[in-house]
Give the backbone structure.
Amino acid sequence: MIYFDSDYMVGAHPEVMKRLNETNHLHTPGYGRDRFTAEARRMILEACALPEGDVHFLEGGTQANLVVIDRLLDHNDGVLATDTAHINVHEAGAIEATGHKVIAIANENGKLTAEKIKKYVDDFYHDDTHRYMVRPAMVYISYPTELGTIYSRDELTAISQTCNDAGIPLYIDGARLAYGLAADGAELSLQEIASLCDVLYIGGTKCGTLFGEAVVTRKPELLPRFDSLIKLRGATLAKGRLLGVQFGTLFGGGLYFEIGRHGVEMAMNLKRVMMEKGYRLLIDSPTNQQFFILPNAKIDYLRREISFELWGPRGEQESAVRFVTDWSTTNEDIAKLAEML
Amino acid sequence: MIYFDSDYMVGAHPEVMKRLNETNHLHTPGYGRDRFTAEARRMILEACALPEGDVHFLEGGTQANLVVIDRLLDHNDGVLATDTAHINVHEAGAIEATGHKVIAIANENGKLTAEKIKKYVDDFYHDDTHRYMVRPAMVYISYPTELGTIYSRDELTAISQTCNDAGIPLYIDGARLAYGLAADGAELSLQEIASLCDVLYIGGTKCGTLFGEAVVTRKPELLPRFDSLIKLRGATLAKGRLLGVQFGTLFGGGLYFEIGRHGVEMAMNLKRVMMEKGYRLLIDSPTNQQFFILPNAKIDYLRREISFELWGPRGEQESAVRFVTDWSTTNEDIAKLAEML
Amino acid sequence: MIYFDSDYMVGAHPEVMKRLNETNHLHTPGYGRDRFTAEARRMILEACALPEGDVHFLEGGTQANLVVIDRLLDHNDGVLATDTAHINVHEAGAIEATGHKVIAIANENGKLTAEKIKKYVDDFYHDDTHRYMVRPAMVYISYPTELGTIYSRDELTAISQTCNDAGIPLYIDGARLAYGLAADGAELSLQEIASLCDVLYIGGTKCGTLFGEAVVTRKPELLPRFDSLIKLRGATLAKGRLLGVQFGTLFGGGLYFEIGRHGVEMAMNLKRVMMEKGYRLLIDSPTNQQFFILPNAKIDYLRREISFELWGPRGEQESAVRFVTDWSTTNEDIAKLAEML
Amino acid sequence: MIYFDSDYMVGAHPEVMKRLNETNHLHTPGYGRDRFTAEARRMILEACALPEGDVHFLEGGTQANLVVIDRLLDHNDGVLATDTAHINVHEAGAIEATGHKVIAIANENGKLTAEKIKKYVDDFYHDDTHRYMVRPAMVYISYPTELGTIYSRDELTAISQTCNDAGIPLYIDGARLAYGLAADGAELSLQEIASLCDVLYIGGTKCGTLFGEAVVTRKPELLPRFDSLIKLRGATLAKGRLLGVQFGTLFGGGLYFEIGRHGVEMAMNLKRVMMEKGYRLLIDSPTNQQFFILPNAKIDYLRREISFELWGPRGEQESAVRFVTDWSTTNEDIAKLAEML
């Protein structure tokens, strides 16, 4: 069986695993006060060119989202996001459970736009009753988006500027950031992205680690007493160095970027194979998530040996499907798929 | 340097690490729907003799506590616990953040008593204004306790009966359960403990895994829609099989119990060494946490080569200290300590 | 100055005020355990033909909504409502602050439809990932709606049936219920409405009292321990009898219905005057809220002597406006308006 | 029947009722943006000698407490209070429901002490693990206390200074403040109290109004966006002027202080009568709540014609009881009691 279901179906990249093994017998202080975590923090800030910034490591994406968003918002504030945003759809109401509204705005190819943000904020403040409404107090976007798309430099700059003008922070969910950085046609570097937003989480789980996400901010004062809030949500890892060791491996020598490039290369090969066989794209994604429309008969046939995700029916004869690549995807996997198409 | 600070300063037991390596390249469904998780669940239920029960795997102890307690309580309910309970002292207000009061009751050697539970509940219902008070609606105890002590069979049976009579669930935090089962003088087996409470969490982090806790219940109906609630709190591990693989290793062949026995053996050796040198116990613990009162000068001297936790001053010349053992503690470590005492 | 801004700008109906004066010197038990509250409860249940039902009195509408919705929902559940619903727009995030998502659905003339509810619920359960999504677990509608419209018997019956089929409760916000019952073309009686939903709040504030809303349910078991939850939210009135006295006056002899009829009669007169003068309706409301499109110059002129609400610009020359009537509106008020139009 | 059960069993003081009647037919803007509310705010700030301060009106005490405390605390913060504090005992967990721990400290005659506050805060910051503990971030006291006692000038000054040194706000629950100001031996004026704390709520419900509490602060910046937070909790009164009218009556000509004096005079008469008959005090209260120990037989006899609160058994033959006076208590009531003693 070959697996294209998602990018969290396999363990860690062998280099990461190797470092976990090498450090397994060491004794270090708990809760992230160890040297591996300190070093990983330093490496990430260097990679982001944010010498004055700070990094906090958490275990998973929903956790990172809920702790960051709850920290950035005041009482009665909401977070602007697309209707397709992970926080709006697939986190079981985690944001609302912290007391905050996700203000959903219709997406454009999975993306928010500066115009829509500006309009929402302007309309809000022009409403005489706004003190009895949920205040739009931060913006959440994902990069790449839930549909695999990415923002151009102009798009992200405009969003960043709009947030800045409105005095509200911009938070980027980078669960699959490695693939966004390596995307076909990507204009934005990690340093640019990190400087255009206020808080960014760099995903590990889908980009080479067993688990773990790094929350990076260029303005540490935005996340006061963040360690206590992480603990409050049960998100403090006792053996915190595991996060440091893993992220240190990713960022010590460029492995993170390499994983991104590999995933995207495999995804582009996969897309090419599909298109050569005449299958249509559901959306044109330049990253490691690829969406196609396939005949149901073909889907049934493929599933004998290839695993992937059904994304919903498209009429009676066809369905949308998602294929995802990661560090473990090989050219042999793609060849096998090509053979069966 | 030799480390006795805590039982979460080292990586996973080598057997656990070995299984993580062996399974690293496999692809499996995410979120705990894999075969390793299913198998670990089966093993744990067998070890607990709860064929009709259920197991949920979470990443850490505070997380397990907050998700379980929030699930078991209705609006305006509180949880009875000792004043020294981890949920009352060291979880940063995690339980209150879910909206519930921790009703703290003075401990006796770190323990709650059936009498105190009964008195609190009786007094509550005899108070005419009780519908405007926080309802005592569940009991939390830790086994072993935060002070390393354990409950006798009579004590736990009485608590269980009292909870049952009051119609409120009993929840046991077993962060260090392995050491409680192997404790010097322990009367209770895992099966007995699991049957005397309604929900139990079996700790992995401090007993041989990298991370992870197994929430076990003999009454699955007590935790309805628990998967959604776990996700809501950001506590769902994407690569959920990591928990299954680790707990499967612990419970597949008795490793969990062996780790407990080793930790307690080391702790008893350590206690003996201390007492032979004439140092006093702060509390007489039969498990892997040992508390002593040492002269400050001796503490300073030891700390050159041995790391342990200061538990607070006792007068001007002495302090209480905590030494903790785990799977990685060796007789050489104890010998080195003896040499320096 | 004549006021049409809203229906909460004047005090209580003289009959209500009279009873408050008459009972002011009496001593009665607090927190709603008095005879006036008991009597008002009985009267309301009789008016609703719900002898087995229950009534709880609260102080305001947002309060009633947040306490009821929080009570009806389980963890990770959301409430379906229109995008224009009061709970979605004008309660400052009160529902989210209790941890629950308002699932907003595009309104049709301010209304939800059975079809949309059914589709949302069906789609949810057909989604393989639904256990990580917010469960649609109750429906909120307002009667009349925020746009003044009302549901026909067929419409409400279909919604009620759909909710019943889906096993989720239907909750009706009746802040302006009196005007809905008396609406031009209204098909539904109080008894029908109360029997078609699971929980209903009958508004007092906008229908003749100083403050206060009566939460009615035909299934008391849906609101277990509701008194404690009301207190938890700070919504328990110490001098609880004030609610009983006021609602007893409204429901003791038909005053509630009379107030509704008077408000609607005035509103219909006002609408007639506007239409005779050639002004367009923004929406055709049969209740006490009337929405028109007026030239901005006319608006400026009217505002010299008449107060009403600007509802937002409609192009450069015109704006939407809202006029609201209540028990205190007189034919002289309408005549004065007519004169200035 | 004569009633001494509590101070919320009767309606409003006749002067308050008179003003409500006189203003009932007026139309004013809602939500507290009316001239009566503005005027009451001005009067209260003048009475408190806080020209730079601010006042917010809420409906009830639990509501005021939960909104203020939630506003003053950051995530993971707790509020220090006595074990007998209303927020710790009789508000159904309202504070915890906003996510915050009530840190209960053993009371001394119903009071907190500066020493205990200082010790708790010092111990907290000396604990190495404090970032995983609940931060003591504000102090709550009631004046008078739940046991009727009051703080001396030295006591309150010391508490105020301690809070100031620790950088945490002091909040005073003045549900019965009028009686505290008029207490036998009271050293503190309203102006002193208002200047020694950061936020104070001046109770109306128990001191002459139908309902309502005025939250006063000398530092408006401590309560940012407070209107939105009040709405979020469902605590915004639509006909907000009712609060303004009532508090304007209390503070327009000294009525508030007069009510306090009357209540205390009646309470002192009542105490004298009890002591003359040889009954013991449970606690020596100088305010309108009086606690005695009476023989059970006498209690049964009195209850034929006099209503008061049982405070709990004291041995087999006696019980503690509470008698409360208010604006409606008369010398005839006391004489009747004396006659039956």
Summary: The radius of gyration of chain A is 20 Å.
